[in-house]
Amino acid sequence: MKTEHKYLLSIVGPTAIGKTSLSIRLANHFQTEIISADSRQFFKEMQIGTASPSPSELDAAPHHFIQHKSILEDYNVGAFEKDAIQTLNTLFKTQDYVVMVGGSGLYVDAVTKGLDYFPEVDKSIRETLNKKLEDHGLESLQDQLKTVDLASYNTIALQNPQRVIRALEICIGSGKPYSSFLNKDKNNRPFKTISIGLTAERSIIYDRINKRVDMMMDMGQLEEVKSLLKYKDLNALNTVGYKELFKYLDGEWPLDFAISEIKKNTRRFAKRQLTWFKRNPNTLWFDYNADFETIIQGIKNKI
């Protein structure tokens, strides 16, 4: 397949749908490497509960950004965007194709589209806004945002206090509306992205999730969480599969209930993932059981 361009084959879809196995098949087909855009798989202490690729899967194709950080390190989407683009620039010197796989929508978008960039603001502003939230409730912050930045008030998720506080801290810290920083100066990418989505009927997705959670528990998920109990307040561990078992270990929940909550919260997460990824009208969607040659043909047609 001749090409004059560089292509990033971005595999998206809900958790437990089979993205990892497809990414390896595509990497082998195109004789290339894989970049992970799964923000939970960055951390070396979190292997079982994040469904990180197995040693045999990691051996099947070169991977980047798998278990390369510690939960004790501060690593965010902005740092990932910078690192991923640097890695892609290197890979594209010798490759026409690179595969990216991951269910973290914001991290996928950071690589394919670029992030909005905001000025640094004093941390005390957020502390003041958090205190206002605690003392006077979310509505007081919503009213404040309506006054200083009506455009953001009309577009952001007003029921999400963190979104409201983020918008307000930028308004206060910069003296400019939060909305004025959106969709500005995003970097044009020197490659083309072909987005490949895997999906299935909701009942199949949910069944696969339930079976995966049971498999994780059999693999030692509880022991992994036990080893991380003293770090439970870290942001990296405030995630499905860990926070529920922390409640069991703290004596708040029975184990069976904690496992059922992992399944329920993972199903909710999968629903949010699909909502996020369905926003991209250019994604090529395939059934999770689609024939590999059908997917290859879809990529060829897109090129």
Structure description:
Belongs to the IPP transferase family. Keywords: ATP-binding, Magnesium, Nucleotide-binding, Transferase, tRNA processing. 49% of the residues lie in helices and 9% in strands. The protein has a six-stranded parallel beta sheet, sandwiched between helices. The N and C termini lie close together (9 Å). The chain has 13 helices and six strands. The radius of gyration is 21 Å and the shape is globular. It has two domains: 7-115 and 188-216 and 276-302, P-loop containing nucleotide triphosphate hydrolases (Rossmann fold), CATH 3.40.50.300; 123-181, Histone, subunit A, CATH 1.10.20.
CATH architecture of the largest domain: 3-Layer(aba) Sandwich
Query: Low-confidence parts, pLDDT < 50 over ≥5 residues?
Result: none
Series of secondary-structure elements, N-terminal to C-terminal? EHEHEHEHHHHHEHHHHEH
The biggest sheet amounts to: 6 strands, parallel
The CATH superfamily of the largest domain is identified as: P-loop containing nucleotide triphosphate hydrolases
Rg result = 21 Å
CATH domain fold name of the largest domain = Rossmann fold
How many domains?
2
Structural class: alpha/beta
Main sheet: strand order: 3-2-4-1-5-6
Average pLDDT: 94
**Class of the largest domain, according to the CATH hierarchy?**
Alpha Beta
The count of helical stretches stands at 13
Beginning-to-end CA distance, first to last residue: 9 Å
Q: Tell me what portion of residues adopts beta-strand conformation.
A: 5-15%
Shape: globular
Helix content: 40-55%
How many beta-strand segments?
6
Binding site for substrate: 15-20
Catalytic activity: adenosine(37) in tRNA + dimethylallyl diphosphate = N(6)-dimethylallyladenosine(37) in tRNA + diphosphate
Site (Interaction with substrate tRNA): 104, 126
Cofactor: Mg(2+)
